[in-house]
Specification:
The structure is a single chain. By secondary structure, this protein is of the alpha/beta class. Helices cover about 30% and strands about 20% of the residues. Strand 12 and strand 13 (about 290) form a beta hairpin. The termini are far apart.
Length: about 325
């Protein structure tokens, strides 16, 4: 009996393309693109079409619980039941909790399968158990964009969707090879180019995406930060930055201790719970430091001397600290 199931492709590219899975006699036999309300998202790549069937039926796929026999690395396993596996795991977790506390047990979701169950199951277990959940972005040091968003804005990749590229005049890609790693979305970049956007690709390699660029900038590997600092030097030097955005949506106004480089907390000013852990800003209207949530007019630049627990400490805004770090990154210095 043949049937068609509407589902999504969920491997490592994160494209989550809608697909129609053709099933014959309870066996997946074919994948094809499914309709979408926005026809620009009706797509699927050859990798997804082939990979879906191969992943399900590959002979090395683990389809039931296995328990190791002998020492680690010997490659000896025995098949056990689901009840045995769950009882074993539950017993080990209970022992950890009794000896070290529930937070000593930790979970993490990683790449490879972006299905909603695979991504969220670890969070659900950690929440139910009272354990520790690591961000799947925190462990991957090569995801520089994600970590940059996190430290600057406090969120993971809070940005526009692909379709908004159509309104762009300039598209700047740092080390992004979308033509091969997000090939189902690359057409949005090409559509934007046809609509008049200029595409700039910064990448040491002449990638397939760089081949489509109006301007390919082949910097030396590892020098992205120098290039970006040089760009920032010019942006703030020409007052082209958005100070209001920095004030309202980033850590720019938060005060930093000059002696330790740590953010100042309201508790250091004598504030009691629950605001003791709040970040501190300098309120221009009040001419004094206050918790960020209480500020009417937080300043984005400047240095201030604060009384922190009876000690006078020079502090500066986080954005001021960035400005200070840019002083040595003129375009000439960065180019070198």
């Amino acid at each position: 009996m043949d049937r068609v199931v509407r589902t999504v492709c969920a491997p490592n590219c994160t494209g989550s393309c809608g697909v129609l899975a053709h099933v014959r006699d309870d066996r997946l036999v074919k994948i094809e693109p499914a309709d979408f309300p926005d026809p620009r998202f009706r797509r699927v790549c050859l990798k997804g079409m082939a990979n879906a069937v191969q992943r399900v039926y590959h002979p090395d796929r683990v389809k039931w619980p296995l328990r190791r026999l002998g020492a680690r690395g010997e490659g000896r396993w025995e098949r056990i039941s689901w009840n045995e596996a769950l009882d074993d795991i539950a017993g080990r977790l209970t022992a950890i909790k009794e000896e070290h506390g529930s937070r000593a047990a930790s979970w993490i979701s990683m790449t490879g399968n972006y299905g909603i169950l695979a991504m969220m199951l670890s969070a659900r277990i950690a929440g139910s158990f009272g354990g520790t959940l690591f961000s799947n972005l925190g462990i991957m040091g090569d995801l520089a964009a994600n970590m940059g968003f996190l430290t600057t804005t406090g969120v993971h990749q809070d940005a526009h969707e692909w379709t908004d590229l159509m309104g762009s005049k300039l598209i700047l890609l740092f080390g992004c090879n979308y033509a091969e790693t997000a090939l189902n979305d690359m057409h949005f970049v090409l559509d934007a180019k046809e609509a008049g956007a200029e595409l700039v690709v910064v990448d040491p390699r002449f990638s397939r995406t760089a081949a489509k660029a109006d301007w390919w900038i082949p910097i030396r590997p590892g020098t992205d930060a120098a290039l970006i600092l040089g760009m920032l030097h010019e942006i703030v030097g020409q007052s082209r930055h958005d100070e209001r955005y920095l004030r309202d949506h980033t850590v720019g106004p938060f005060l930093v201790r000059s002696d330790t480089g740590a953010f100042v907390r309201a508790g250091e000013l004598g504030a009691a719970a629950p605001t003791a852990d709040a970040y501190v800003v300098w309120d221009g209207a009040l001419s004094r430091p206050v918790a960020s949530s209480d500020a009417a007019d937080p300043t984005v630049t400047g240095r201030y001397e604060l009384d922190l627990g009876g000690t006078r400490v020079e502090c500066l805004t986080a954005f001021q600290a960035l400005l200070d770090s840019l002083a040595d990154y003129s375009p000439e210095k960065a180019a070198a």
